[in-house]
Amino acid sequence: MSVRLTAAGDFGWFSDQRGYRYEKHHPSGVNWPAIPDSIMAIWRAVAGEVPDPECCLINFYGEGARMGLHQDRDEANFDWPVVSISLGDDALFRVGGTERGDKTESIWLQSGDVAVMGGPARLNYHGIDRIKFGSSSLLKEGGRLNITLRVVR
Ligand code: MD6
Ligand code: FE
After folding, report:
1. What ligand has the least distance to the C-alpha of 85?
2. Which of 11, 36, 91, 110 could, after both became Cys, cross-link 55 (CB 3.0–4.6 A)?
3. 3-state SS, residue 37
4. CA dist., res. 2 & res. 127, Å (int)
């Protein structure tokens, strides 16, 4: 993983020498800010009849950043979907099945695209192979923001 990240909501995603985990506070000790209403509205429009998200993870991909194939499985209940919002530069998203060796497909995610991984696809492997740096004018200095929403507990 080569992205930079921050978070909003009741939990942020954090990594240090002890590994990756959900944390109630920013490393500085303050609470994460509330998830903005405009982002909550997207969750309510696409996630279905499900609890509100508890984590809004904000990843920034600069030139050359990528994210290796992974499953999102650090949450307590896989009945709830993960919703992902893409902003800025185009990104090549690869998605496979629930086993690491399964066949994969790739699609370009563009600014404004919203992806939902839920139901039988909730635990599918996925990642970002590359971004097309400078393909969008949304962010003045280029790059891509990906916002993911999750129910954690
Ligand atoms: C990204 N997305 O688009 C990485 N996870 O930058 C994810 O890792 C992801 O798009 C769970 C559900 C949807 C996703
Ligand atoms: Fe993911």
Report:
1. 1
2. 11
3. helix
4. 12
Give dist(CA 51, CA 44) in Å, integer: 9
Number of helices (H), then strands (E), in the chain: 1, 11
pLDDT, tens digit, for every residue of 55-107? Answer: 999 999 999 999 999 999 999 999 999 999 999 999 999 999 999 999 999 99
pLDDT value of position 153: 94
pLDDT greater than 70 at residue 120: yes
CA of 117 to the centre of ligand 2 (A): 9
Q: How far apart are CA 103 and CA 139, in angstroms?
A: 33
Helix (H, G, I), strand (E, B) or coil at 23: strand
Ligand 1 site: residues with CB under 6 angstroms?
59, 67, 72, 82, 84, 93, 115, 117, 126, 128, 146, 148
Give dist(CA 36, CA 49) in Å, integer: 20
Whole-angstrom distance, CA of residue 72 vs CA of residue 20: 12
Nearest-CA residue for atom 8 of ligand 1:
127
Residue nearest to atom 6 of ligand 1 (CA): 146
